[in-house]
Amino acid sequence: MPSLTSAVIPYWTQRLAHRIDQKIDALAAAEPGLLERLAAQARQRALRSLGLEELQTELDALVAQKHQWQQRQRQAQRAMLAVVRRQPRQAVTHVADQAMQAEIRQAIQQRQASHEEELFAADARGQHILRLRGERDNLQEAVWLASSPAGLRQLWAKVLEVLQEEPTVLQRQALALADEGADA
To answer: Where are the domains of the chain?
Structure first.
């Protein structure tokens, strides 16, 4: 098998990733709302497992009250012909608020990702999507393996063995293609 040049590998990696993304989109389209449903369930599990469920409910109620308050405030301002413009809060308080919110948001997102993976693993289509995402995440390695010399492929296989990891389906196929090319 001829080696791919370093200029061609990113192109093929992008093209193959695009094909995988298309398949993920098709699987998601076959069951409308699957991704959104699993993401919402994962968020609920993340909130519950972090002990934030009741606090999030309270925060949601406060956000709704804040929205109503903001609407009333805008109406009052229009009534006063918006003579006085509201100035933003001091930057220091914004930074402190944003930093706190960012930390909470990050914790929820990390936990949600973990729960989302659990939910995908429990769903047949979700399992297929997880496998495809894994292939996409490891696609560049598969492309490199398909175009690498035998010594590098052997070293890669030994590293996986030491790490007690299995190659992905595409990586196994890349190794098989490369072995076929070596036999020819």
So the answer is: 1-29+138-184, 31-121
